[in-house]
Design a protein that fits this description.
7-stranded mixed sheet, 2 domains, Aspartate Aminotransferase, domain 1, alpha/beta
Length: 364
């Protein structure tokens, strides 16, 4: 007799991380490997955040606060809302998975554009909901009209990655609001804003302001990117108290560890540091985009901390392998849903110089 596993495992796409399994973090930290594959911050956590982590480390014999009280209160204060409207998770991925579990059953529909964040296909696979993919529109931007046309009485969850990963394109808040207003009240829209601080269309709080008038909207954010806390995995959602209660009901207890809670609660206080890091990232974004243009490479109009590069006649696998030989890690486009592309995160000025020089050598 052999063990029988759930049929849904066969539907799982399998997540491919940007960092190869077993790759030593010290190799990246030493500068030997330019890690430009995972959209991480090249900057370490703020010193005060490191102090908060160190201070919390001595109490690791105790379970973390199951309600993440301080972290949720600090986030609520940052956005001038109530803690009851703040959900936190082990990265924003956990909140996405929990939302699907809480909102969807077999027969429901989950709708999103493609290519987009590579976690989205897990949601219908886990819940048995029907997946509805809508191709991106011209310029690799979400086609909101086409998405709205696909909404039915069975649609429970609509995912909008904004700025979109992997293309980096962004939809202004006014267009997001108009889209949400067109949808029936039973549809929950999750606006996945992991990279929102890097966009230049709006104030980053513009979409948070929409929550007051849009009961079906959830804004999802993370500490992994601009705050430099990818290694601790802590994300959060702003929505209704009912949404927060629903996802808490389907998750394991203590899902956000104590170090992550301490780090996030301190990091959210340092908005001046966020502004400085955004400015540094935009400087590097301009540098990389200009360099790619000089190499004859076409890119999407990015509002994130990465570029989505159309390789044209160049072979994707050869470019990725050639960069790897030069100790430069980038993300191939095929696993992200669009062969013939690569996604490159912005690193330090030196790492970005190495990438442009290496790509130029390969194309030559």
């Amino acid at each position: 007799m052999s063990v029988t596993f759930a049929e849904k495992l066969a539907r799982m796409p399998g997540y491919q991380a940007g960092v190869p399994t077993g790759q030593a973090p010290e190799a990246i930290a030493s500068g030997g490997i330019a890690q430009l594959a995972s959209n991480e911050s090249p900057f370490p956590p703020y010193p005060k955040v490191v102090e908060a982590i160190a201070a919390a480390a001595g109490a690791m014999n105790r379970y973390p606060d199951p309600d993440a009280t301080l972290l949720r209160r600090r986030i609520a204060e940052r956005y001038e809302t109530e803690p009851a409207r703040v959900a936190v998770g082990n990265g924003s991925c956990e909140i996405l998975l929990a939302a699907a579990e809480a909102l969807c059953e077999p027969g429901a529909e989950i709708l999103y554009s493609w290519p987009a964040f590579s976690m989205y296909p897990y949601l219908p696979a886990l819940t048995g909901a029907r997946e509805v993919r809508v191709p991106l529109g011209e310029g690799d931007v979400h086609d909101l009209d086409a998405m709205a046309a696909e909404v039915t009485a069975a649609t429970q969850l609509v995912l909008v990655c904004n700025p979109n990963n992997p293309t980096g394109t962004h939809i202004p808040a006014t267009e997001v609001a108009a889209f949400c207003e067109r949808l029936p009240g039973h549809v929950t829209v999750i606006l996945d804003e992991a990279y929102v601080e890097f966009q230049t269309h709006d104030d980053p709080d513009a979409t948070v302001d929409l929550l007051a008038d849009l009961a079906n909207l959830v804004v999802l954010r993370t500490f992994s990117k601009i705050y430099g806390l990818a290694g601790l995995r802590v994300g959060y959602a702003l929505g209704s108290p009912k949404f927060r209660a629903a996802i808490d009901a389907v998750r394991q207890p203590f899902s956000v560890n104590a170090l992550a809670q301490a780090a996030g609660a301190e990091a959210i206080l340092h908005q001046d540091d966020v502004t400085r890091r955004v400015e540094s990232t935009i400087v590097e974004r301009i540098r990389v985009e200009d360099g790619l243009s000089e190499l004859g490479m076409a890119t999407s109009d990015t509002h994130a901390n990465f570029s989505w590069i159309d390789l044209g006649e160049a072979e994707e696998a050869a470019v990725v392998a050639g960069l790897a030989e030069r100790q430069i890690a980038v993300r191939p486009g095929t696993p992200l849903g669009d062969p013939g592309h690569i996604r490159v995160s912005y690193g330090t000025a030196e790492e970005n110089r190495r990438f442009l020089a290496g790509l130029g050598e390969i194309l030559d």
